[in-house]
Automatic annotation (TrEMBL):
<keyword id="KW-1003">Cell membrane</keyword>
<dbReference type="GO" id="GO:0055064">
    <property type="term" value="P:chloride ion homeostasis"/>
</dbReference>
<dbReference type="GO" id="GO:0045202">
    <property type="term" value="C:synapse"/>
</dbReference>
<keyword id="KW-0868">Chloride</keyword>
<dbReference type="InterPro" id="IPR004841">
    <property type="entry name" value="AA-permease/SLC12A_dom"/>
</dbReference>
<keyword id="KW-0406">Ion transport</keyword>
<keyword id="KW-0630">Potassium</keyword>
<protein>
    <recommendedName>
        <fullName>Solute carrier family 12 member 7</fullName>
    </recommendedName>
</protein>
<feature type="transmembrane region" description="Helical">
    <location>
        <begin position="383"/>
        <end position="403"/>
    </location>
</feature>
<feature type="transmembrane region" description="Helical">
    <location>
        <begin position="581"/>
        <end position="605"/>
    </location>
</feature>
<dbReference type="GO" id="GO:0006884">
    <property type="term" value="P:cell volume homeostasis"/>
</dbReference>
<feature type="transmembrane region" description="Helical">
    <location>
        <begin position="244"/>
        <end position="263"/>
    </location>
</feature>
<dbReference type="GO" id="GO:0005886">
    <property type="term" value="C:plasma membrane"/>
</dbReference>
<feature type="transmembrane region" description="Helical">
    <location>
        <begin position="423"/>
        <end position="449"/>
    </location>
</feature>
<feature type="region of interest" description="Disordered">
    <location>
        <begin position="1"/>
        <end position="32"/>
    </location>
</feature>
<comment type="similarity">
    <text>Belongs to the SLC12A transporter family. K/Cl co-transporter subfamily.</text>
</comment>
<keyword id="KW-1133">Transmembrane helix</keyword>
């Protein structure tokens, strides 16, 4: 496609962004009147039609605003209905740092971090957080390099990956990132419901009972809140953006409250008492932590006694054995940062599902016979815990690093703000997480940390018990922050899907590129809500977190890969402003992300990779072709260059020989292919997986014919696509067709990847008087392929050859092996039978025995030869003895020579007339130029050609020519045929008779092609011999070897 065609192709390009008013070449929007104002640049007037002046180029580049502003555009559209885009004004702090902070800090910090610290211990928790933060920091470095290597429009990470690694990787990872963002929305909504039903309003639960009831409550409330959020996003995204600052304030206030609470514990720890029976943690529900109390010198049992004694308050009641054997103790839940509890919390305490949360250093007397488990009394673990599972649950808390790059259109200086803001945000959040791990371990009792839902502290949020001035600061703050994060996910995910859909790389997603009149992605929002509902139906925060961890990790892995590939390739366009990157860092980040995927959950990792792989193959198979200058294309070029340099210039070993075919096509006046079946046959022959170059020649001068050459190339490429012929196309414009074919035979291919076989169609019109050069070009091509030591395949009756859709259910491929050609005749049927068109055909090999040959021994030898070649074929030896030359052969030879001589005479007389007329024209031109009009003289030439023609002279010349021609024609009819030609014709007639007898009904006949005569005078006779040899056969492939062995019996 030319640049002009590309400009006219529509208002949007393949980048899912409006087509910019390009300041570069071929910009049709430039006004023609301004081009020639400066007369001092008249020398460059021709170039100015397509190439702008540097001054106008710089002006356009300085005002380059080809970035979609994301949600800002929609806000302005709804508020004022104005189309112009407000100039971006956001700096690093507001535009990148704070959005990243808001996205990274979230639900896991408030709901799960204390539990992770309690379960894994401070040391292993530190390792978990450090690994995850290191992965995101390395990814941020790679992302900064990519984001500062040019303008990054909306689409964020998807845009960066797809433009760096190509549409296949971009689409696969973009969809993974979309799924990750969507499941993140489900996770935030589940977090919101957990805070609401566990800590704000436990009485709001619809279902009561065990674990299943809790999950059902999550599903019902989650579906309701999802619907409400989807409506809010649909009605007005601007409200979400206006509330974003409120949600961010809630997160920051909550974190400040945590640090304030930690400081307060140093001198005034809060009073949260934990009740333990032996070493077992009890659910605290406003009862006295004692078995009995003394009231007025009377021992009274407490509410705790009733729980273990089946509601029997008498002192002699039958109670739980463990309850009777162990004492009840009460300890401080938050002993404070100076208490030294950190050393107790250093080590992990992994447990199975349903285990009682225990304090290991307290004495406990085991009961000889365990009583019935009292589910409502003890604090139990709800899931089985182990190191890798905690990594999967924790990782979502470090995602959100793309928030800054997603807003690149809103930034004053994106190339400065994105690296600075993102890396600062990751550094800040990493410090917060790592410090929180140490502080939680130093301030809070281990059993409280392992109590996921705060049952031991009266149902309070565990992190809330540490906060100052009140636990409600954290509860309300975390509730609003999770709500905001859910809304942000439901806002961002549909836009990401819309960007992928508008790129057109995944055909079935194109419907999601449409939306409301102002660009709101309505259909994408519906799909996002549906996928989000799947996550909500899972209903468990701990089950959803590893799923989105996989998708985010895969996205980050490919960001690192993109940076590493671009750096290693040293692409000229790879010039990031961010200089603090290195391919080793990117590779380390990629390895860490891959390791984290399998650490989290190996089966989830395999599923995510399978999904990405399926999307990749689908885009590769069905997706639209995009050329984005991506790194994978660059990698392919480097690999191709390396491979070409490794391939020796000399011929390959016989075992590696395969037909590298140059297909010579004929085109009509409309530059359409005359014989499309030639490409079908090429595709059927390519079981050898060799190189295919499809070439054609246009007659003329390239400057005049380049548009026709482009059109011819497009036509051939489209036909190659239809015929499923994989290869390259090469069009040559030459002053003559013969020279063009010669150029193709000599120069097609590159280095060691050159063709070794030429495939062409038989010139059917060689006998027609209006096409005198077709047979000359054909014979010259035969000679040139022989000189170049290349094999030649000539398909006769090519239009009768099968298409790729046809199937032969039976029939034979007959090989007539007359002379040894290096094994081409053996190899070609084998390759053809690999294709489904010819698969059911049988291979038969015929060879000709002369009078002195032992035909029985010949057959045995040939069978043994085929056995060693591992080829299955029937063998037959045909005896063809010498006999008298028939009158038919003699007459056919005579007619051939007479016709040939007549054509020569006709051509000669025509050439003489043309030469004489040209001479007269030249003489007249010369006489006028020198002013010698009056002198009628003769020129001193050997034939004394006269300058003046009279009527008598003209009549005389005509009669003279006529007499000469008549005498020549009399000689033709009196001539005798050449004995050498008679012998050749005899061979052709006899062999044709034998072939017709055996192979007239064969699906394909392969014949040795005899070489052309050394004397060029007999070229037309050579064509006649080949015509006689193949007469009466439907499909014939004439094969001429390249002068080397192409098949071997050795392993």
């Amino acid at each position: 496609m030319s640049e002009q065609d590309y400009e006219e192709s529509g208002p949007s390009s393949g980048d899912a962004i409006p087509r910019e008013s390009s300041p570069f070449i071929n910009n049709a929007s430039m006004e023609g009147g301004n081009l020639y104002e400066g007369k001092n640049m008249a020398l460059f007037e021709e170039e100015m039609d397509s190439n702008p002046m540097v001054s106008s180029l710089l002006n356009k580049l300085a005002n380059y605003t080809n970035v979609t502003q994301g949600v800002v555009e929609h806000e302005e559209d709804e508020d004022s209905k104005r189309k112009e885009i407000k100039a971006p004004r956001m700096g690093t702090f507001i535009g990148v740092y704070l959005p990243c902070l808001q996205n990274i800090l979230g639900v896991i910090l408030f709901l799960r971090l204390t539990w992770i610290v309690g379960t894994a211990g401070v040391l292993e928790s530190f390792i978990i957080v450090f690994m995850c933060c290191a992965g995101t920091m390395l990814t941020a470095i790679s992302m900064s390099a990519i984001a500062t290597n040019g303008v990054v429009p909306a689409g964020g990470s998807y845009y960066m990956i797809s433009r760096s690694l190509g549409p296949e990787f971009g689409g696969a990872v973009g969809l993974c990132f979309y799924l990750g963002t969507t499941f993140a929305g489900a996770m935030y909504i589940l977090g919101t419901i957990e805070i609401l039903l566990k800590y704000i309003s436990p009485n709001a639960a619809i279902f009561t009972g065990g674990e299943e009831a809790t999950l059902n409550n999550m599903r019902v409330y989650g579906t309701c809140i999802l619907t409400l959020m989807a409506i809010v996003v649909f009605v007005g995204v601007k409200y979400v953006n206006k509330l974003a600052l409120v949600f961010l304030a809630c997160v920051i206030l909550s974190i400040i409250a945590i640090y304030a609470g930690v400081i307060k514990t140093a001198f005034d720890p809060p009073d949260f008492r934990i009740c333990l029976l032996g070493n077992r943690t009890l659910v605290r529900d406003d009862y006295l932590c004692a078995k009995t109390v003394e009231l007025n010198n009377v021992t009274e049992t407490t509410a705790l006694w009733k729980k273990f004694c089946d509601d029997d308050s008498s002192i002699n009641a039958a109670c739980d054995e463990y309850f009777l054997l162990n004492n009840v103790t009460e300890i401080q839940g938050i002993p404070g940062v100076a208490s030294g509890v950190l050393f107790e919390n250093l080590w992990s305490a992994y447990t199975d599902k349903g285990a009682i949360v225990e304090k290991k250093d307290l004495p406990s007397v085991p009961a000889s016979e365990e009583g019935k488990e009292r589910a409502s009394v003890y604090v139990y673990t709800d899931i089985m815990t182990y190191f890798t599972m905690l990594v999967g649950i924790y990782f979502p808390s470090v995602t959100g690093i793309m928030a800054g790059s997603n807003r690149s259109g809103d930034l004053r200086d994106a190339q400065k703000s994105i690296p600075t803001g993102t890396i600062l945000a990751i550094s800040t959040t990493s410090f917060i997480y790592l410090s929180c791990i140490i502080l939680f371990g130093a301030c809070i009792e281990g059993v409280v940390l392992r109590d996921k839902f705060g049952e031991a502290v009266n149902g309070n949020l565990v992190i809330g018990t540490l906060a100052w001035p009140s636990p409600w600061v954290i509860v309300i703050g975390s509730f609003f922050s999770t709500c905001g994060a859910g809304l942000q996910s439901l806002t961002g995910a549909p836009r990401l899907l819309q960007a992928i859909a508008r790129d057109g790389i995944v055909p079935f997603l194109q419907v999601f590129g449409h939306g409301k009149s102002n660009g709101e992605p309505t259909w994408a929002l519906l799909l996002t809500a549906f996928i989000c509902e799947i996550g909500i139906l899972i209903a468990s925060l701990d089950s959803v977190a590893p799923i989105l961890s996989m998708f985010f990790l895969m996205c980050y892995l490919f960001v690192n890969l993109a940076c590493a590939v671009q750096t290693l390739l040293r692409t000229p366009n790879w010039r990031p402003r961010f200089k603090y990157y290195h391919w080793t860092l990117s590779f380390l980040g990629m390895s860490l992300c891959l390791a984290l995927m399998f650490i989290c959950s190996w089966y989830y990792a395999l599923i995510a990779m399978l999904i990405a792989g399926c999307i990749y193959k689908y885009i590769e198979y069905r997706g639209a072709e995009k050329e984005w200058g991506d790194g994978i294309r660059g990698l392919s070029l480097n690999a191709a260059r390396y491979a070409l340099l490794r391939v020796d210039q000399g011929p390959p070993h016989t075992k590696n020989w395969r037909p590298q075919v140059l297909v010579l096509l004929n085109l009509d006046s409309e530059q359409l292919v005359k014989h499309p079946r030639l490409l079908s046959f090429t595709a059927q022959l390519k079981a050898g997986k060799g190189l295919t170059i499809v070439g054609s020649v246009l007659q003329g001068i390239y400057l005049d014919k380049y548009t026709e050459a482009q059109r011819a190339e497009e036509n051939i490429r489209s036909l190659m696509g239809v015929e499923k012929t994989k290869g390259f196309c090469q069009i040559v414009v030459s002053s003559s067709v013969r020279d063009g074919i010669s150029h193709l035979i000599q120069s097609a291919g590159l280095g060691g990847m050159k063709h070794n076989t030429v495939l062409m169609a038989w010139p059917q019109s060689w006998k027609q008087a209006d096409n005198p050069f077709s047979w000359k070009n054909f014979v010259d091509t035969v000679r040139e392929t022989t000189a170049a030591q290349q094999a030649l395949l000539v398909a006769k009756n090519i239009d009768l050859f099968p298409t790729n859709q046809e199937r032969f259910s039976e029939g034979n491929i007959d090989v007539w092996w007359i002379v040894h050609d290096g094994g081409m005749l053996m190899l070609l049927p084998f390759l053809l039978r690999q294709h489904k068109v010819w698969r059911k055909c049988k291979m038969r090999i015929f060879t000709v025995a002369q009078l002195d040959d032992n035909s029985i021994q010949m057959k045995k030898d040939l069978q043994m030869f085929l056995y060693h070649l591992r080829l299955n074929a029937e063998v037959e030896v045909v005896e063809m003895f010498e006999n008298d030359i028939s009158a038919f052969t003699y007459e056919k030879t005579l007619m051939m020579e007479q016709r040939s001589q007549m054509l020569k005479q006709m051509q000669l007389s025509k050439n003489e007339r043309e030469r004489e007329a040209q001479l007269i024209h030249d003489r007249n031109t010369a006489s006028h130029s020198t002013g010698m009009v009056k002198s009628l003289t003769t020129i001193a030439t050997p034939e004394k050609v006269q300058m003046t023609w009279t009527k008598d002279k003209l009549i005389y010349e005509k009669h003279k020519n006529k007499e000469t021609n008549l005498s020549n024609y009399k000689d033709i009819f009196n001539m005798k045929p050449n004995q050498s030609n008679v012998r050749r014709m005899h061979t052709a007639v006899k062999l044709n008779g034998v072939v017709l007898n055996k192979s007239q009904n064969a699906q394909l006949v392969l014949l040795n092609m005899p070489g052309p005569p050394k004397n060029r005078q007999g070229d037309e006779n050579y064509m006649e011999f080949l015509e006689v040899l193949t007469e009466g056969l439907n499909r014939v492939l004439l094969v001429r070897g390249g002068g080397r062995e192409v098949i071997t019996i050795y392993s």
